[in-house]
Amino acid sequence: MRVLVLAGTSEARTLCARLTEHPKITAVASLAGATEKPAAYAGKTRVGGFGGAIGLARYLRDRKTDVLVDATHPFAVQISANACVAAAQTNRPLLRLERPEWKARPTERWIGAKSVEEAATLLPTGSHAFLATGAKSLDQFAHRADVRLTARVIDMPSAAPGHITLLSARPPFSGDDELALFRKLHITHLVTKNAGGADGRTKLDAAALLGVEVIMIGRAPPGDGKTPRVETPEDAIRWLEAL
Fold first, then answer.
1. What is the pTM of this model?
2. How would residue 220 be classed by pLDDT, with cut points 50, 70 and 90?
């Protein structure tokens, strides 16, 4: 069985590593190329876009791929939509591997937002917000010169609003590191997307300990509503083996 894994998450890396040892499944990991030095993947990889859903469908046919697994970031909405279209056009099975959302604990102060744009409007004047929403979202905060903004990015963007302080760092980050950073910067608010996962939760734990208010951006409704979904690489392998 030939499987194309749309990758970019820790779950995708784990899945691809496990599949390299599988006797009946050959996998290729596809990376969008959004970061300059992505984490290494076991087995075969490709980097770059496909040219939309049509290009992805062409790739599936040309490479005689049997199954498509979408293990991209929970907020990579466009590639997930393309995967649904390409799978339908080529009559290939499609599986969505997506880790569960974070849930607020009783001691945590979260304000929900439906988008980055809405999150930007919720910051009170005079606050110091830590932005963990990705480099592509920074323009949505351009109009908030009335608040202090510090953003953490993996790769420095070519341009960003001048009043946003940029920190370049690559995850994962320990709880102690997040706690020390928030204390040093006197952060009052954390703006983040509900990506889920144990590694990313350290910043939420630090915010809870310091009484930092969290503006949590929710996920979009899942795909086409028809694609089967699993939450772990192990479940993904079981699903593949059952085909």
1. 0.90
2. confident
